[in-house]
């Protein structure tokens, strides 16, 4: 393992809690830096905050940050796409097994897995295979228990959206690695149900904040928190754990449907042992530096020594299967992707359709104006992001996509 630290100590105005940033050679916007300072200033945050190279401004907490807390939890730091993450599996197929007309493969996968937000991204009727998976998982029963305590949490989206992709930066890709092996990779989370849970508890935290007598300054209402020992703390931990399990299950359900569709259209193939399913928006209790901490990874992946993870690029750029080096300075974490360099609004105003089509010319994907905000130019250089965290992970496989499906 490379023992030379690659992080920089970022200025932490108003706080004695250090901010360690793996940001060499990548942009760090001023607003994101201020947001990190606000987080570090909270008395229950520490021993330090770790910042990944894909860092950018987020709601509540900075995307690309690892926030350890003692005896408190911040729902908005986890966000509303609870358990969002990646899954990837390597097949025995090779590039020569793929059809010349990749548009047909793309359209068949789009039919198999509903994409987008709103009714178009829902199942009108849950397929039997996914309904059976959901029934056997116990997730519906656990959600019913959560709803019994918190009647305002809606659960009607659960059956409509299990096994669906969603919109925004969620995607399904068919990729080739350095040996031309075919991979399937996808990115999604806990869909509308997780969003409803996250939104509900963020609002409850704000309500609690209005009743608290604080002995410190809270610079942002989105940093409202629950304290360990409070009933809402336990209820949130239960709900967020459910959403994280559901997100993992949802990725497994989608992967099963994509692979089923590929089996109908491609030569016979097997799945190889190398498969990864990892969260990058979540919180869990972990032991670090001799103490028990609640670690929130907001756009960050666990990278313990030997642990496999996925760092996707953007439409048109490379992605990576990585192995963690277990760096304690980052709380055993790495980046979750390239990270945005433009807001969605800025991307729509700055990137032309011609530029988008040129940047994705080698990929079978959408080329229309509705995905301009996901074009490669809206993201940081994945090469720079990977170089900045060479002490956090090693590259196991380099993937280039040939088919990309966006919601």
Brief overview:
The chain has 407 residues and is of the alpha+beta class. The chain has helices at residues 30-40, 75-78, 102-112, 128-137, 139-149, 157-161, 191-211, 231-265, 344-350, 353-359, 382-388, and strands at 8-10, 19-21, 49-56, 63-69, 72-73, 85-94, 171-176, 181-188, 226-227, 271-279, 281-288, 291-298, 300-302, 308-311, 319-324, 333-335, 393-406. The chain has a single domain, classed as tRNA-splicing ligase RtcB, CATH 3.90.1860.
Structure description:
Strand 11 and strand 12 (291-298) form a beta hairpin. The strands form four sheets. The chain has a seven-stranded antiparallel β-sheet. A six-stranded mixed β-sheet has the order 1-2-3-4-12-11, sandwiched between helices. Strands 5-9 form a two-stranded antiparallel ribbon. The model has no long low-confidence stretch (mean pLDDT 94). It contains eleven helices and 17 strands. It is an alpha+beta fold and 407 residues long. The chain has one domain (8-341, 379-406): tRNA-splicing ligase RtcB (Alpha-Beta Complex), CATH 3.90.1860.
């Amino acid at each position: 393992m490379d023992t030379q630290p690659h992080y920089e100590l970022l200025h932490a105005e108003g706080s004695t809690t250090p901010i360690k940033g793996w940001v060499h050679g990548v942009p760090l916007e001023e607003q994101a830096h201020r947001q990190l300072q606000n987080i570090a200033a909270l008395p229950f945050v520490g021993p330090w905050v770790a910042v990944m190279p894909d860092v950018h401004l987020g709601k509540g907490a900075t995307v690309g940050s690892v926030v350890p807390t003692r005896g408190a939890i911040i729902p908005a730091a986890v966000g509303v796409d609870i358990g969002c993450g990646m899954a990837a599996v390597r097949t025995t197929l090779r590039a020569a097994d793929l059809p010349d007309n990749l548009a047909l493969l793309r359209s068949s996968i789009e039919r198999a897995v509903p994409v987008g937000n709103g009714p178009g991204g829902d199942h009108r009727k849950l397929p039997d295979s996914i309904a059976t998976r959901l029934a056997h998982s116990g997730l519906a029963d656990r959600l019913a228990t959560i709803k019994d305590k918190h009647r305002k949490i809606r659960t009607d989206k659960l059956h409509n959206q299990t096994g669906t992709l969603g919109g925004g930066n969620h995607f399904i890709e068919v990729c080739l690695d350095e040996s031309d092996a075919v991979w399937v990779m996808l990115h999604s989370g806990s869909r509308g149900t997780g969003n409803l849970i996250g939104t509900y508890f963020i609002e409850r935290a704000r309500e609690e904040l209005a009743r608290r007598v604080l002995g410190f300054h809270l610079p942002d209402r989105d940093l409202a928190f629950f304290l360990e020992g409070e009933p809402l703390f336990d209820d949130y931990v239960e709900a967020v754990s459910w959403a994280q399990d559901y997100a993992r299950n949802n990725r497994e359900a989608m992967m099963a449907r994509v692979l089923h569709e590929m089996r109908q259209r491609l030569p016979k193939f097997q799945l190889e042992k190398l498969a990864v399913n990892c969260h990058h928006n979540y919180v869990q209790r972990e032991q670090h530096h001799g103490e028990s901490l609640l670690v929130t990874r907001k756009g960050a992946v666990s990278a313990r020594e030997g642990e496999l993870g996925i760092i996707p690029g953007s439409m048109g750029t490379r992605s990576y299967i990585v192995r963690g080096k277990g760096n304690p300075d980052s709380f055993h974490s790495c980046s979750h992707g390239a990270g945005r360099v433009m807001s969605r609004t800025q991307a729509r105003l700055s990137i032309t359709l011609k530029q988008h089509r040129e940047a994705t010319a080698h990929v079978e994907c959408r080329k229309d104006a509705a995905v301009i905000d996901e074009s490669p130019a809206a993201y940081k250089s994945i090469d720079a992001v990977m170089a900045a965290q060479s002490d956090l992970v090693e590259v196991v496989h380099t993937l280039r996509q040939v088919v990309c499906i966006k919601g």
